[in-house]
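#help-structures

NK: newbie question. if I give both the sequence and a SMILES, will the prediction place the ligand too? trying with zinc ion
OV: yes, paste both and it writes out the complex. here, I ran yours:
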Amino acid sequence: MKLFVAGMAHETNTFSPLPTSKRAFEEMMIRPKTGQGMDRIGDAFGYKDFIRMGEQSQMQVAKSLFCFAQPSAPTVQKDYEELRDEILADLKAAMPVDMVLLMLHGAQMAQGYDDCEGDIIERVRKIVGPEVAIGVELDLHANVTKAMIDNSTVLMVCKEYPHIDFDKRAEQIFDLCLRAQRGEIKPVMYKFNVPMLGAFPTTREPLRSFVDETAAMEGKDGILSVSLVHGFSWSDFPEMGASVVVVADGDMGKAKALAETLGKRFFNMRKQIESPRLDIDEALDQALAEPKGPVVMADRSDNAGGGAAGDSTYVLEAILKRGIKNVALSMIWDPMAVQSCFDAGVGATIDLRIGGKTGKFSGNPVDVTAKITALAENPRQFMFGAVAPLGRSAAIQFDGIDVVLNSIRQQTFSPEAFSELGIDPKSRKILVVKSTQHFHACFAPIASKIIYVGAPGTLSTNYLQFPYKRMPRPMAPIDKVSL
Ligand SMILES: [Zn+2]
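OV: that's the protein plus ligand as structure tokens.
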């Protein structure tokens, strides 16, 4: 039996100030097909698990590329087509295959393509024909489209936010596709649209219990899989939004009925499951009121992992204005300031202008007189076990605040984003991280309290500030909707 594995992942924010080219994929990861480089950020996705499962099952595994770029604006058309066509050419060369497994994101757009995943899956289906099982794993921040559903055999998103379960979902998809290929099951899929925007952590109730409840339905009573798809709220196109996808064994009526029931429940809990966000001063008041640290403040709107620049200064400015000390912030993306720090050297004190550069939600640049406390060529932090590189980085200190400046745009995943630059995160009263929710997996164990800050930013949930033109309406919370 022959398995073909490939993947491409990009979460596209149509409001991001950062264009996306092939260089953006090269900076994060275009995985060599030789099997090397398995510890890079993209390997936290299910691609390597598909390969592992195939090899464990004594299949012949044809590996095409897996590439990943940090979230940003739609990909340049020719660069997307070049990467896609490489996957398709590898598939044609590998034919005939019995099974195709694709690790995609589900919210990828390119110039000329609203739905890159639908485009890829449709082209794969044309090559392999109707009988071959195509399994697709997506991020739960997917905007699942008709083309994706129509052309895949089993489509599933990760269940957890933070996304700690790509490996388990890959195993599940592998298993279902194998059983479909053997004729043991006949997967049918139904998608129910849930017209809501939002970011919904699965670490909190009531969503935690809802995820567990739906996971427990799988493998029973003809239900093969249930995906609660959160959607990606910053991809402005007609098929964006949350959804519920149910895969049933041969019974479309059953899939439809369950997707509708769960979709309505998902929609009706939307206000309870959105993470609470405080304005900056309220968040700082709460952090200061906490008897001990570190209080982790998540600047969720300036998350590079959702297409923001990662260089906004709103939170830093407020901390400086209030004269709050014993704070560490990681990271502000500012390659130019990093270069100045390298030129001046560790121990030097220099005038530096940091952050506030890239887009209209970056805020003002901040002028500081800072001591350079550490420099590192390639500090590493970890995203669910895989390396998420920071690039050349510097730690600077001013007014009782430590700030990490970095060169590869990246969200804050783990405490190494501080410690690799000589800052002991446990010793600070307040840690500011630029991440919406993924920080939670590695920071919760050391945090005395976690506070989500609703600062301005490219990922703000103040949706009315974005010039949506193509979103399907009505959409909650912008419009009044009832289900
Ligand atoms: Zn996601």
